[in-house]
Design brief:
Blueprint (H helix, E strand, L loop, with lengths): L2 E5 L3 H13 L3 E5 L2 H10 L4 E5 L1 E2 L2 E2 H10 L6 E5 L7 H10 L4 E4 L4 H13 L2
Parallel strand pairs: 1-2, 1-3, 3-6, 6-7
Antiparallel strand pairs: 4-5
Length: about 120
Amino acid sequence: MAKILVIEDDQAVAEAIAFVLVRNGHQLDHAVNTQTAKQFLSAGKYDCALVDVWLDKEDGLDFLAAQRTAGNNLPFIVISGGGPGRSLENVTARADAHGAIGILYKPFEDRELVDALSLAFGNR
C-alpha cells in the first residue's frame, strides 16, 4: 500500500482517481491547489504525487519545477487534458525536463493509472 498525493482541481477527475487508488489498496490525500499541496507535502510522507497541469489559475508544471528546485525527489506523475498554449508535445517536454516519472493524458484508462504508479514505485 502506498500513500499518494493527488493534486487535481476537477472534483470528478479526483474522485475517479481516488476510486482506482483505493480499489488498488492505496491511501491518498487530495489537494485542489498548490498551496494545499505544499501543506500536505510538508506535513506527510508520500510515495508518489499526481499533479494536474491546469489547476484553476495555477500551473502544475511550475509547481513540479519548484518542487525539484527545492530538492523534492518524490516521483511525480503529470496529468493533462491539454488546453490553450499547452500542446501535448509542450506538456511532455516540460514534464520530462522536470523529472516527471510519467504523463497521463485525459481521459485515461484505469489501467494506465495503475501502470504509471507501478513505474513510479519501481523507480523509488
